[in-house]
Specification:
Low-confidence stretches: none
Distance between the termini: 15 Å
Strand order of the largest sheet: 1-2-3-4-5-7-13-14
Radius of gyration: 21 Å
Shape: globular
Length: 482
């Protein structure tokens, strides 16, 4: 049973995001929320990094020192995309995950007509992916909505954004449906809970009930996803629209019943609340209690719930980097960093340089948990380790990355043997890009090293790491050299 575990058509690949890679932020493009992200180091708390008040937003918009915003420059994928895509194809990628910057197609988000310059750029990018023998996996919105939709409309709490999003989606569906089968509506849609400004455009002090705004915004994104799924199937019958979450896998700190209930509550609110409407077509049963206890009164229009029920997503995509623990009494638990939110240390696990708990077995657990619950195809679209890579004599010996990926892929094999239906696996990331959470270059994820430092200096040369050749061999053998 250990031989030929992965299907012949398994989609091996890697991922990037437009807002972290492209650069050229002021060339035929509008200002996005990602363009307002300042570089931080590990000494700045996650709360401070994520919190955006009206005063902070005003100051960011007035800032004239563009070097404070690394995502505006990225790794210059805008000019290097042909080389980058070719290097990934040479690794043997079957699929290349990317996002299309909303602000390149509709710079302000509410224009009547799309920007042809932006479409021409993605014509070339997507053609390059296809011509190099890879399938494009396109994320429609990856933490980079137009700033104008924040300042003029208040972000996703405003239902008007559904129409703006659908106009954007239909333009790219019409343009690329023949080349693109796989789509994702929103990157980590549960960012409405953990990454509020960059996911929904909500400003913390813009209303008297910020929490309600967050969940109203999520509801609007659910509706936008259902409508986008309906629309893409009008263009292409075999198209697959996926929803995506940042999967927070939580264990109880002990077998104490209160800890088990606390961990269950975390799983429900962090994950299932955001998946159920998009896969099951309805809100989970505990949502009503959560809304009542938190003074949340969602404006759900007639027909919304029917729309969700009739347009479930075709697959469930998720990112998995780590697991965490939870307990009813948190006084004796030590905090550590994690993807999108801080968590608590598991004494049985090692951690990365950035404090992320490394848990390969947790990926098998997660795959089984999600497949048991939803019985729909799964797609791991982000998995990887951020680290400081040493570039010595033209080489990067990143054995720690190989070990991380190797142990996780071993657990993916076990999950497939368990009966999980898995479409593919795209690592985060295919090439070094600007970090999403801290906007630094020092925290690297890719198979390809980019000569660029945190100060924005470097040749921008691209160099394969040791992991590049390891992953190439893995794909060549369809996962069997692991």
């Amino acid at each position: 049973m250990k031989n030929n575990i992965f299907p012949k058509d398994f989609l091996w690949g890697g991922a990037i995001a437009a807002c972290q890679s492209e650069g050229s932020w002021n060339i035929n493009k509008g200002l996005s929320v990602a363009d307002l992200a300042i570089k931080y180091d590990k000494t700045v708390s996650r709360y401070e990094r994520k919190l955006v008040t009206q005063k902070k937003l005003d100051n960011l918009l007035k800032e004239t020192d563009t070097k404070k915003f690394p995502k505006r420059f990225g790794i210059d994928f805008y000019n290097y995309f042909e080389q980058d895509i070719k290097m990934c194809a040479d690794m043997g990628f079957k699929v290349f995950r990317l996002s299309i910057a909303w602000t390149r197609i509709f710079p302000n988000g509410d224009e009547m007509h799309p920007n042809e310059h932006g479409l021409n750029f993605y014509d070339k990018v997507i053609n390059s992916i296809v011509q190099n023998g890879m399938q494009p996996l396109v994320t429609i919105n990856h933490f980079d909505m137009p700033v104008n939709l924040v300042t003029k409309y208040g972000g996703w709490k405003n239902r008007k954004l559904i129409d703006f999003y659908l106009k954007f989606a239909e333009v790219i569906f019409n343009r690329y449906h023949k080349q693109v089968k796989y789509w994702i509506s929103f990157n980590e849609i549960n960012g409405a809970r953990f990454n509020v400004f960059y996911s929904t455009g909500l400003v913390k002090d813009s209303s008297d009930n910020h929490l309600q705004d967050c969940y109203q915004a999520a509801h609007h994104q659910f509706i936008a996803t259902a409508l986008a799924r309906k629309k893409i199937h009008e263009y292409r019958n075999d198209a697959m629209m996926g929803c995506m979450v940042a999967k927070f896998t939580t264990y109880p700190a002990t077998c104490k019943p209160e800890d088990v209930i606390e961990a269950q509550e975390n799983e429900r609110l962090d994950n299932f609340y955001f998946i159920d409407p998009l896969i099951r077509g309805k809100y989970p049963s505990y949502a009503k209690r959560f809304w009542k206890e938190n003074n949340i009164n969602l404006n759900i229009l007639k027909g919304d719930l029917q729309l969700l029920e009739q347009n479930p997503c075709d697959y469930l995509a998720f990112s998995y980097y780590m697991s965490s623990i939870s307990a009813a009494n948190k006084e004796n638990l030590e905090e550590t960093e994690g993807n999108l939110k801080s968590t608590f240390k598991n004494p049985h696990l090692k951690a990365s340089e950035w404090g992320w708990q490394i848990d390969p077995i947790g990926l098998r657990y997660t795959l089984n948990q999600l497949y048991d619950r939803y019985q729909t195809p799964l797609f791991i679209v982000e998995n990887g380790i951020g680290a400081e890579d040493d570039f010595v004599n033209g080489k990067i010996e990143d054995d720690y990355r190989i070990e991380y990926l190797k142990t996780h892929i071993e657990q993916i094999k076990e999950a497939i043997l368990d009966g999980v239906e898995l479409l593919g696996y795209t690592t985060w990331s295919s090439i070094d890009i600007i970090s999403s959470g801290t906007s630094e270059m020092r925290k690297r994820y890719g198979f390809i090293y980019v000569d660029l430092n945190d100060s924005g200096k470097g040749t921008l040369g691209r160099y394969p790491k040791k992991s590049y050749y390891w992953y190439k061999d893995l794909i060549l053998n369809n996962g069997d050299n692991n």
